[in-house]
From TrEMBL:
One of its GO terms (cellular component) is membrane. Signal peptide: none annotated. This is UDP-N-acetylglucosamine/UDP-glucose/GDP-mannose transporter isoform X1. It comes from the Eukaryota. The chain crosses the membrane at residues 21-38, 44-68, 112-129, 136-154, 160-180, 192-213, 225-246, 253-276, 282-302. It is a multi-pass membrane protein.
Amino acid sequence: MSLPVFQEAAEHPAQLKFLSALFYAGSSFLITVVNKTVLTTFRFPSYMCLGIGQMATTLIVLYAAKVSKTVHFQDFDRGIILKIFPLPLLYVGNHITGLASTKKLSLPMFTVLRKFTILMTMVLEIYILRKTFPKHLLYSVGAIVFGAIVAASSDLAFDVQAYTLILLNDAFTAATSVYTKKKVGTEDLGKHGVLFYNALIIIIPTLMASVLTGDLHEAVTFEDWVEATFIFCFLVSCLMGFVLMYSIVLCSYYNSALTTAVVGAIKNVAVAYIGILVGGDYLFSWTNFIGLSICMSGGLMYSYHTFNIKSTGVNAEGAQETKIHISEDSQARFITN
């Protein structure tokens, strides 16, 4: 039986919901800027190795916290892999396509195309978590996606490969958020266990892929390893990779996967506004600017209805909800496609 969004949201205090969303927005903003600096400004050739560094940092930080008994999560056993599947595969895809698309797209256009994560997340929550959504949230999401379409229609630097990567990243991000919400809520892993075992399972095959493709060799022979500024930015990126993954888990845990996606969208529009002024790789047009403004309006409208206590109370008592019914057969077809 599916549950309305506002009923799920009521399980956690409003302050924790808002603070976890704010933490995710800040972390996502910082890592976008740092990754852009490492991959574009310094022209670091290996986005895969940057991802490996972020995974390694996650393992080191969480293992040290477990040993010091700062955090607690389940010890490793053979059942862990089955419990956590398919999250490791989704995390790999999310890391690789995210870093690759960051390198190939201008920062503002990257943030515009990331809006389609929201629509994909909503669809996956309907099919996988069997959720329903109030009409005002549907309208808000519709405004965000429409604004993204308007903004992207003015892109004069269209790149098929870059656009393919970013849309794949949207799909992986949406699936990761939904399955993270599902695993944290139903499996005996906890927030920290989900993060630790995801990184542990995927770091070895990712490292092997980096070796086989020659990606690791390019990273090791990179000439700027002698530059203190680059080393600092690389280490900050590795640390922020852990912080971002942790903030996503927290935001998805206290809110919904869809709310996490919308918070990311609002942050991305703010980054796009900054990129217009200081980026240097943005081709300004009024169509793009208007599209971004529509996105921001939809995101703010969604945030108001989600985090406003009075609005939530009203919705819980009597707001009409748009219910989307899905048969078991259609759900199976969606998941297997």
